[in-house]
Amino acid sequence: MIDNPRSPRVRGVAKLAKRDARQQTGLFLLEGPQAVSEALRYRPELLVDLFATPTALDRFGDIAQDAAAAGLEVEFVTEEVIDGMADTVTPQGIVAVCRQFPTSLKDMFSGEPKLIAILEEVRDPGNAGTIIRAADAAGADGVVLTGRSVDLYNPKVVRSTTGSLFHLPVAVGAELETVLERAHRAGMQVIAADIKGSDLLTARRDGILAASTAWLFGNEARGLSDVHYALTDRAISVPIYGAAESMNLATAASVCLYESAFAHRD
């Protein structure tokens, strides 16, 4: 059992909460039973190390079974060691180290995709992770985080996906112009979710969302620049019927993605 929270190995895991360490190693931190279970179920080959307290492993017995099926040994650690490794204030007793696995743009836009979410300069980790989760739930073909968006492997992004990170392709790092060019070459229309756009209900009525669509979501505070806005095919806004001043980006993105998902299934 690992019992020294100051050991080099524990510190090495903890460093993965920092972007520099993730870039140097190609690894990232995975916390909690839900995320670890999804990784073991969908992408077990990505797991490098798996740590758990005896109490946590007793509580989440499926993880031990799935790890054994994947040929991965669970290393027992103390509560203090888990606290030293984890990025969260109250970890749930299970931490893993995974290999990063971004999808290439070429693969993202091959095979006639019907629905893709593009995030440009989305900086909030919770928003980015929740949009990935919503895209997964809506049956999207993938998500693209441009180079100006938050790091996909930021621990808060990973936690916010609640395991959806392992369910669908996610590409990172490209310039938005390149991403939009790929989307157009794949025969997709690019729709900006923007307050200046036409009403979502009008787009629904006119059948616009039935076509293959790459939704573009901009920065939480500033939205899209005029230059990037001009590169889209159209803009659509989510109407607000109550007294709310605005809508959270991830919430608006969820509505847009599901509207496309509904239209594709009519």
Brief descriptors of the model:
elongated; 60s Ribosomal Protein L30, Chain: A; 2 domains; 4-stranded mixed beta sheet; 266 residues; Alpha/beta knot; single chain
The outline comes out as: elongated
Assigned CATH class of the largest domain: Alpha Beta
CATH architecture of the largest domain: 3-Layer(aba) Sandwich
Task: Classify the helix fraction into a percent range.
Answer: 25-40%
Strand content: 15-25%
| Average pLDDT figure | 96
Q: In which order are the strands of the major sheet placed?
A: 7-6-5-9-8-10
Flag low-confidence runs.
none
- Number of helices, where a helix is a run of at least 4 consecutive DSSP H or I residues: 13
- Within CATH, the superfamily of the largest domain carries the name SPOUT methyltransferase, trefoil knot domain
Q: How many angstroms separate the termini?
A: 55 Å
List SSEs in N-to-C order.
HHEHEHHEHEHEHEHEHEHEHEH
Query: How large, in whole angstroms, is the Cα Rg?
Result: 20 Å
CATH topology of the largest domain: Alpha/beta knot
Question: What is the β-strand count?
Answer: 10
Global structural class: alpha/beta
Oligomer: single chain
The total domain count is 2
The main pleated sheet reads as: 6 strands, parallel
Descriptive report:
The protein is an alpha/beta fold and 266 residues long. It has 2 domains: 8-99, Ribosomal protein L30/S12 (60s Ribosomal Protein L30, Chain: A, 2-Layer Sandwich); 105-265, Alpha/beta knot, CATH 3.40.1280.10. It has 13 helices and 10 strands. The strands form 2 sheets. It has a 6-stranded parallel β-sheet. A 4-stranded mixed β-sheet has the order 1-4-2-3. β8 (189-199), α11 (200-205) and β9 form a beta-alpha-beta unit. The longest helix has 17 residues, at 249-265. The protein is elongated and about 60 Å long.
